[in-house]
Amino acid sequence: MTEILSSQVVSGLATGCVYALIALGFVLIFKATDVVNFAQGEFVMVSGFISYTLLIGLGIHYGLVLLATIVLSGVMGVVLERVVVRPIMDAPIFSIVIATIGASIVLRSSAGILYGYDVLPLPTIFSKDPIRVGFVQFTAMDAGVIGFSLVIMVALYLFFKLTRTGTAMRATAQSQTAARLMGVSVTRIFSLTWAISAAIGGVAGVLIAPIIYLDPNLGFIGVKAFAGAILGGFGSIPGAIVGGMLLGVIENLSGYFFNAGIKQVSTYILLILVLVIRPAGLFGAAPIRKV
Amino acid sequence: MFEKMLRLNNIQVIYSDVILVLKGLSLEVAEGQIVALLGANGAGKTTTLKAISGLLKTEDGRVTDGGIEFMERRIDGLDPEDICRRGIVQVMEGRKVLETLTVEENLKIGAYTRRDADGVQRDLRMIYDYFPVLVARRHAVAGYLSGGEQQMLVIGRALMARPKLLLLDEPSLGLAPLLVREIFDIIRKIKDEQGTTFLLVEQNAQIALSIADYGYIMENGRIVFDGPAAKLRGNQDVREFYLGLSEAGRRKSFKDVKFYKRRKRWAF
To answer: Which pLDDT tens digit goes with each residue over A181-201?
Structure first.
């Protein structure tokens, strides 16, 4: 009993780490630019196809594929910001959000046209053989996904805390005017934010695609991650991480205790419950509107 | 050396294409001086600073006539970050610290445009020398500082950019008189020791003129009077209008000032 339960928790945590990465992408862009980017899930999907093409189509080494996918995803983020968001920068936030939904539909359909709608297998370097530590049983893949996600999160934390650019990004998130008066180019910071968010989405794609599936609808995982961000408190970085992880675990356990159908909708039930009971989420402060 | 570091030639500023705020304003700031820009609420003092720093652009305002020259080069129409890189840093009204960053991070953001790590460290120590209260709070989150500490922090942050010209907007706002005195004395000391040039916007004319070298008085989007600070301090009209002092040197009641104001306007 505890064995199965604990392995359910660990594999839930692995999926949850990926949700956390995607949620992080949502929150970074939101904090810096006030925009909720609904194409965040499509970053995950596109990066899955990028790595599939490099790995299967071109037969490149896995490590290089990972690196290339992260870089290409980052480039995709910058391009999306330039092409879709920047031209309508002065429009109301709502219009920009709608534009990102449009972009997500374009990306999803393009992937469908190029690769078809069949589910493709994306290989992984982690084995799926079970490992036992004490009474906890998990796969090397779970451990790999969790470990890799944590490395990315720590790297991001250090980047924001210690580097000059990271500090400038935090400053911009707080006050664009103050940042500009100190010589920070806000447009450059915006590009960089989109690049980082998309690159994190890229990592998430490489990690999650072998676990669930790879098809043009993989982007809908973004909705689940969004729910994770809301659970943690939208706009809070620790919230996105904890919320995403928690969501993965809850989702897995509801599949274990109830059935696969409940597992599918558990995310949305949770999302509604959070919005009704505690809209600010776990880590969120009372909503403040920037004027 | 530029005798006149900053020159505003007859500038006109319009917000949202319709609201005329500055109506042909001319002003000069000589290098190494503190120049005070005085005037009542709504005279256009802050707008003048925003026109110089480029913030106007971000608020749907434009310099529609005249020009702004900094070290003999036109700067009107540039983005705020480019103007900052040329050596003009504005300290906004109302102590806009970056609240979730620590004191030291706030100061380091000030040095964002600089590449000389040694110089930045040296200046950091210099700022802590000028504002010793910040040392104890260096790792505290800036949002939790007191008003006076926040004002010192934003001035320190601006100094970290090693500006040639520092634009200060109402540093006395909402602070206790003793603290205001302390901050203004430090500003004077920084000017004397570092050679930084200041353009100082204030409503508190008395304290501003006590440290300034030169002063301009604004009313309704125009400069109505200017002169060396000593001359302004002695001028009868300035004393009546902005320092609230009658001939005998006693404080005049607000009612009397209002009456006087109704009777006589500045000639321009």
So the answer is: 999 999 999 999 999 999 999
